[in-house]
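All the exercises in this workshop are built on plain-text protein records. The record below serves as our worked example for the rest of this section.
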Amino acid sequence: MLKSIIAKQKEDKERLLSLPYIERSKQKYAQKWLSSDLIKVILGPRRAGKSVFALMLLKGQSFAYFNFDDESLPGQEKIDLDELMTELKLSYGDTKYILFDEIQNLPNWELFANRLHRGGYNLVLTGSNASLLSMELATHLTGRHIPIEILPFDFKEILKARHYEVIQGKLLLPNEKAKLLEYVNQYMTNGGFPEIVTKGVDPRGYLDVLFDAIMFKDVIKRYKVRFSKQIDNLGTYLINNVSGQYGTKKLADVLNFKSQVTLENYLDYLTEAYLLFPLERHFTKVSMRMKSYKKAYVVDNGFVTAKAVQHSPNMGRLMESLVFAELIKKGYEPNRELFYYKTRNNREVDFVIKKGYMASELIQVCYDLSRPDVEQREVKALVEAGKELDVTNLSIITWNEKREITKDGMVIQLKPLWEWLLEDKENL
C-alpha cells in the first residue's frame, strides 16, 4: 500500500511544483537555512500554503516527499517506518533531502525525525499545530531545528498575486488609489488564505468549511474532545467578538461551561490549531499578565466574515484584527513582544511592541477619526501610555488619513492603513 501512496503523492508533488507560485515574504529567510543540517519546521494553519512553500523551498533539489495527511493511509500508528524509508528510497533514489508534510499526524514523530537527522538526512517538516510541535521540538530536537511560520498571505503577497505594483506617483491617480483601497478592503473582510486570493473562490463558503475542518481534525479529533458543540460555540463566540476582552470565569458563565478548567483547555486547543490568538495585557510582572483579561484575535479576518452572526461588519474591529495579524506576520510574537495596554486611568492602547525588556512602540487603530471626541480619546490614551512606558514612537493607524498630531510634547503619526501595510518592518 505504501508503494502506491508514495507513487500518487510523487505525482502530486510534481504537479504542484509545475504550477505558478506567489513568492512568500519568508522565502529568502528560509532559503538561507536550506543547506544547513538543522531541521526546517514550517508551521501554520491548514491551507495557508505551508506545503507549497516547502516544495518551492526545495525546488531545484533532489528530494523525497511524503504527506502524513493522506486519507488513503492506514491509521498512522500502523505505518511501518522502516518500510516507508525503503519505499521512499526506491522511488526517489539516495537523496538526503526529505519533506514530510503534516508530520504531527504521526505518533512519536519527533523520535522518527531525530533518528533520520542523526542518520544525516536534511529534513523539512510541516505541521498545523503550534504548541504541540514546539513542545515536542523543545524536548527532543533542542538546538537542532529552525521554526518558520507560514500564515495566510500578508498584504504585500496579495498585491503580488494581483500583479499590482505600487510605484512612486501611481497613487496620485484617483483610479489607482481607489483600486488599492479596494484591495485593502477585500483583505480586511475576506482575509488572505491563498485559494481565496488566487482562485477567487467564495470566501464565506470556503472558510466556513475550512473552519469546521480545522475544528474537527486539529481540535476535536486530536484532543478527543467530548463536548464538540461546546468548543465550537466557544470558537464562534470569540470570533464574533474579535479584538474584545475576555476573562475565563466570565466566559465559562456566558457559554454555560460547568468547568473553567475545561474552558481554559479548549482555549489552548483553539490556539494550538492556529484558529485564535490570545493577547495579554502588558505588565512588568508576569503574574499580573496571567491574571488580567486577554483579547481574542483570529489568524485571518476571513473567519470573522464566514462565522459572523451580525448583519453588517464592524469595520473598526476588523481593522484592529487585521493590524494584529500583520504584526505577527511581520514576526512579532504575541505575549512576548506584542501586548495590549491599559493606562492608570484605564485608557486602552491596542498594541504595545517590546524590544527586549522595554516597550518601543505604541499603536492605536481607529477606522474613523472624523468625530473630535473619538480623536481626543485615542490621542489621550497614546499620550498617557507613552509617558507611563517612556515610549515616543506613537502612531494611530487610520483608514485613509495621514497627518501629525502634537499633544503634551508628544508627537503622534496618523498613518493610512494601506501605507502601514506596505512598510518594511519585518521582525525576522
Remarks:
- The mean pLDDT is 93.
